[in-house]
Design a protein that fits this description.
This protein is α/β, with parallel strands linked by helices. It has helices spanning 28-42, 52-61, 82-89, 103-111, 125-138, 151-163, 174-183, 201-209, 230-236, 249-274; strands at 2-4, 10-12, 21-24, 47-49, 68-71, 94-98, 116-119, 143-147, 167-171, 187-193, 218-223, 241-244. Keywords: Phosphoprotein, Transcription, Transcription regulation.
Amino acid sequence: MAFVGISGMQYSGASLSHHRILIAEDSNVFTSMISKRLKELFDIDVEICRSFEEIELAYDKSSEKITLAISNINLPGAENGEALNYLVDLSIPTIVFTGTFQQKTRDQLLSKEIVDYILKDNIFAVDMLAESVCRFLTNHNHHVLIVDDSATARALLTTRLKRYNFRVSAAESGSAALALLKANPDIGLMITDYNMPDIDGFELTRRIRGTVGSHQLRIIGVSSSTDRLLSARFLKAGGNDFIMRPFIDEEFYCRVNQNLDTLTQIKTTQRRLTA
């Protein structure tokens, strides 16, 4: 199975047909478009629920785990978002597919720790949704390392990345990060804080780049400093990207995806050249 998304995501691997996907949507047009697209791209047969009651029945009828739900905010019998709350309360990873978007709506959605939200306001909406589904189902192939001396910061980033279905390791110092990288050569992305007591983010990046190139490991630096030149210094040290705290969720996930997409493309090209 091969897939190339709108943003440049590439996936070539096993079929995704074994995943149980639930669509909570009352529009026949969108349910038809989504189910058709996911079937032709990933061979996934989705379960369609057009009301809150049908969601409850789908959950109760089978003990098989629901891998992912795609849900509108409002459904018949749940005009105030009860269906979405139900899915979230059951800890079912959920992508919201909605035509309603305001800052208040966006903030409320993210506070529920959904996987993603896709707007129905453009002709590419279903393809963007398909890409979001593919990312969630395949993100477990990526191992991400968080490096930060703050336990709170490590926990927040770890929770955020696990919400997107990544495999995550965490290190409380630069030296611990070096040890984890040595023990886990499958780590493809490192997100490191700049200000750490033993080895700062710049020095950590320099040491890694002495033996590991960007074709093997992508590095994103982060900092809450107001010094805008930190990004330039970090990139010159061998980093691939830099993000200032506090993060905007959508930007953070986009930067992570872009770096991992680049890594995938490099590895795909290398395999073709050596084949």
